Amino acid sequence: MLAEKYAERIEKIFAKYPDKRSAIMPLLYIAQEEYGYLSEEALKEVAALCDVDPTQAHSIAGFYTMFRESPKGTYWLQVCTDLPCALRGADQFYKDLCDYLDVEDGGTTADGIFTVEQVMCLAACDKAPMFQCNFHYYENYDMEQMKVLIEQLRAEAASESDTDTATETASESGED
Ligand code: FES
Description:
With 176 residues, the protein is α+β, with helices and mostly antiparallel strands. Helix content is 52%, strand content 10%.
């Protein structure tokens, strides 16, 4: 439960605002960090902490693209395809990305590493095609650069997974 695990952090956040409801976004971030995404249960938990109705937590989570309302891949690629970016080729860029990863719009790759999604303006309209990956911005991208990045991220995910497996094996065998 967030209230117990993050008690100190939550209290510090509440102290910054005149009322608890104003702290809803920072608490949604904590919930997302803890659970990976904002499930119905997570939204209810945050709403209870902030003394608001769960529908309010739901509407905030649904409005802002930085909140995840469903599980995502390790890397969440949010491509802006809003009009100014579309005029600079963002639609084709997004389509090529989906084809390269072999996913549908909004889908996650079979290995769970990448989720792709179209989003509205990310305030970098003159730098399209652009996207954010786990909240880091990448601007003026083309598919050749994208393929390099994807393979880098795939390699990172594989190496982290190998490290996790080695740690589990060591811990199962009693090693430190
Ligand atoms: S329209 Fe794409 S960043 Fe603004």
